[in-house]
Sequence to fold (292 residues):
Amino acid sequence: MKLSDDQVRRYWDDGCLLAEGVLSDADTQPLIDELCEWIDKRAASLHADGKLSQLHEDAPFETRYGRLVQQTSEMGRGMDIMHMRGAAMFQFLHNAALLDAVSSLVGDEITCNPIQHVRAKPPAGDADNSWSHGVPWHQDAAVMMPEAEGSNVVTCWIPLGDSTSENGCVQVLPGVAGGGYIRHQKEGGTMIVPDLQPDVEPVFAECRRGDVLFISRYTPHASVQNRSDRCRWSLDLRYQPTGEHTGRTAHPDFVVQSASNPGNVMDDVEEWRRLWIDAFENPSGAAMHREE
Ligand SMILES: O=C(O)CCC(=O)C(=O)O
Fold:
C-alpha cells in the first residue's frame, strides 16, 4: 500500500516515519523460517565441532539464538543477508507491499541499496559483545561514501517481532534531517561527534511485526540495550531511486522495481548470489564509513 499524503509529509518534515501494518505475517514468515533453518544448521555444525553443548532445539525463534550465542560468539558468524544469501530474503527484497510504500518516498524506479542487514540483538546477559548494549547515535549517511550525499537513500527498519524500549528498539531524533550531514567519529563505533549531537529529545520508535520505520539518511538514530530475556530481531534495508549513487560501490545494488523498463528488475536469486560472492572474492570499489 502507498503511504498516505500525510505520512509522506511527516516523513519529509521529521526525517522518519513509523508506518504501522505495512506487512502481513505471511510477508515475513518465510524470512523467519529461513533464519530458523540457518540457525539450526549452524548450531548442529558447532555442536559437532564441540563448541556448543546445548542445542535448545525446542526454544522458539525469540529465545533460541540468545541461548546459543551465549555458549559461543561463533554462533552469529555469517548470519547476515550478504553471507546467507537466502532465497526467501531475496524474494522479500522485492516485497510488493514494502515497495509500494517505498515508492511513495523514492518514486517508481527503485534500486535496492547493498547496505542491508538482518540483526538479532540478544539479551544483554546472553552475549558477551557490545552490540546487545545498543548502537550509538549516527546518521546512515555516515556509513556511505560522501559521493552519495545527494542520493535519496531511505532506510526501512523492519521488526520481525515486538521492538520495545525494553528489548533494544531504535531511537530517532525527529526534525533535524534538514540540517544535513553531521561530523562523525570512529571512536565508540561510527557515531556523531558528541559535541555536535543535536539538542533534541530522542523518541523511542517502539514497533511490532508488520510495521516499518522509515529513516532518512540524515536522521540521527541509535538503539538501546536489550534488557529483556528475548532477542530483538529486525532487518534494516535501504532503497533509493535508480541511477543515484549507492554510497557503497564495493557491493552489489540491483533494480527491484521499474515502471519504465520492467526488464531491468533483477529477479534471479542465483545472479544475486554470484554478485555477492564476486564482491567478496574480487574486491573493488569502496565500502567505507565516512567518519569525518
Ligand atoms: O538495529 C539497530 O539496533 C540499529 C540499526 C541501525 O542503526 C541502522 O539500521 O542504521
In short: The first strand starts at residue 16 and ends at 19. The CA atoms of residues 221 and 240 lie 19 Å apart.
